[in-house]
Specification:
The protein is 38% helix and 14% strand. The protein is of the alpha/beta class and 446 residues long. The protein folds into two domains: 174 residues, Aspartate Aminotransferase, domain 1; 255 residues, 3-Layer(aba) Sandwich (Aspartate Aminotransferase, domain 2), CATH 3.40.640. It has a seven-stranded mixed β-sheet, with helices on both faces. The relative contact order is 0.15. The structure holds pyridoxal-5'-phosphate. The site of pyridoxal-5'-phosphate has 15 residues, from α4. Pyridoxal-5'-phosphate binds next to α4. Keywords: Aminotransferase, Pyridoxal phosphate, Transferase. This is Aspartate aminotransferase family protein.
């Protein structure tokens, strides 16, 4: 197991990919220099690359594979459905069953609408908020990732050169060519700063359709939102007729009743995705019946028409049902225990090496930071080139010790893991941190 290796099958596949995919890549999130490892199969919590190397997978397809790979029950229902048909121009019973499961678990969700991705779920939630309130603007948290809809991408990667004052963060485009009109309709607020956020929001109160918030924003540092922040946003919405939109595309991983039960709040709309598809493409927007009525076609064209060739396809639906049924409260507890054990082990490993850094996160989601000071929001987590260099050595070090982590330091657990795998991951973390220490020593000539 030695990455990088220009003679490897992965390196050769990447050379081939360069001839048909831009930069050899069709999904920016899996891009890696000098080349990505190509997967050949997965089983339980392990993934094989095309060179035959086996690793513990702590990416889990960016959190979607909560049951790892080849889960027997998911495979069984999908194989049965494959034999019956994969997509119809007719509804199926599976969409009702998955909707019922979600409604029964999440208090604020009375009606659900399925999409094909989390991006679409967030997009439809924003459009639903606009259709319901007849207002144009949305607010979102600086640095928070919500998928690829223009409006949801604003200020995803703003930098010290363009992010403006903390009291009034500038709305910065993510993709080149983003229309000015999009920026004008997205209000950017600072994470976990209820006072400043409410000041900013109040300037747009009569135009705000909704506030989009992820209570555990991964790209913004994986720091939990404070209760005061979430409650402040909820109260603002209540008072001003805006809708609170929770993005639980990732954070639905945190508990049986969703992240919103942990923060004890009932958003008007919730975007879901990832785990509710059991490893297949999915997204969903759910909410109170009154709000979700914008999709209701019974009286002719609804306020918000919504289709989608593969929306609610029965493969994703039945895989999602099988995945959720296996996610009992006890299973969530087990995931959280493993997550806590790994965070502790990582923090111990940093301390033992007198290396600045720490593990943060909640439940089965762990993020490793190499910054000198505490990360409290997007700005404090913004990486200097040196911090980025350490992280890159760390992630590469993990790969070479049999663990795959996301390039930005995220480690995601899955239900097939046991405390024995957590021990193996912790050992790999120690060795990867040793690599970082070694590079620092060689930099300083010690
Ligand atoms: C919080 C959050 N929202 C939305 C999305 C978009 O979901 P998808 O990749 O399924 O489009 C993601 C994807 O990682 C996400 O993390």
């Amino acid at each position: 197991m030695s990455y990088p290796n220009s003679d490897s099958a992965s390196a050769k596949l990447y050379q081939r990919a360069l001839n048909s995919l831009p930069g050899g890549n069709t999904r920016t999130t899996v891009f890696m220099k000098p080349y990505p490892l190509y997967a050949s199969k997965g089983e339980g919590c392990h993934v094989w690359d095309v060179d035959g190397d086996i690793r513990i997978d702590c990416v889990n397809n960016f959190t979607s594979n909560i049951h790892g790979y080849a889960n027997p029950e998911i495979n069984r229902v999908v194989q049965e459905q494959l034999a019956r048909g994969t997509a119809f121009g007719m509804p199926t019973v599976a969409e009702i069953e998955l909707a019922e499961l979600i409604c029964s678990r999440v208090c604020s969700i009375e009606r659900v609408r399925f999409t094909n991705s989390g991006t679409e779920a967030v997009m439809m939630a924003i459009k639903a908020a606009r259709a319901f309130t007849k207002r144009p603007k949305i607010a979102k948290v600086e640095g928070s990732y919500h998928g690829s809809y223009d409006y949801a991408e604003v200020s995803l990667d703003s930098s010290p050169g363009n992010w403006g004052e903390m009291t009034a963060p500038t709305s910065v485009p993510y993709a080149e060519g983003t229309p000015e009109a999009v920026l004008a309709d997205v209000i950017t607020i600072p994470f976990n700063d209820p006072e400043r956020s409410l000041q900013i929001l109040s300037q747009h109160a009569s135009e705000l359709a909704g506030i989009l918030v992820d209570p555990l924003p991964n790209r913004a540092g994986l720091i939990p939102a404070s209760q005061a922040f979430i409650q402040g946003l909820a109260d603002f919405c209540e008072k001003n007729g805006s809708l609170l939109i929770f993005d639980e595309v990732i954070s639905f991983r945190l508990g049986y009743h969703g992240a919103q039960a942990i923060w004890n709040v009932q958003p008007h709309l919730t975007a879901l995705g990832k785990i509710i598809g059991g490893g297949f493409p999915i997204g969903a927007v759910g909410g109170k019946e009154e709000v979700m009525a914008v999709f209701d076609p019974r009286c002719g064209k609804p306020a918000l028409p919504h289709g989608g060739t593969f929306s609610a396809n029965p493969i994703s639906m039945c895989a999602g049902i099988a995945a959720l049924k296996q996610l009992t409260p006890a299973v969530y507890e087990h995931l959280a225990e493993m997550g806590e054990a790994l965070r502790l082990a990582i923090n111990h490993a940093f301390a033992a090496r007198h290396l600045p850094g720490r593990a943060v996160g909640m439940g089965s989601l762990i993020k490793v930071h190499f910054s000198e000071s505490d990360v409290t929001d997007y700005r404090s987590g913004y990486q200097s080139p040196e911090v980025a260099r350490r992280l890159s050595i760390f992630v590469k070090g993990l790969l070479n010790r049999g663990v795959v982590a996301a390039s930005y330091g995220l480690l995601v657990l899955s239900t097939p893991m046991t405390l024995s795998e957590i021990d193996s991951i912790a050992s790999a973390v120690e060795r990867a941190l040793d690599d970082v220490v070694l590079s620092l020593n060689s930099q300083s000539g010690t």
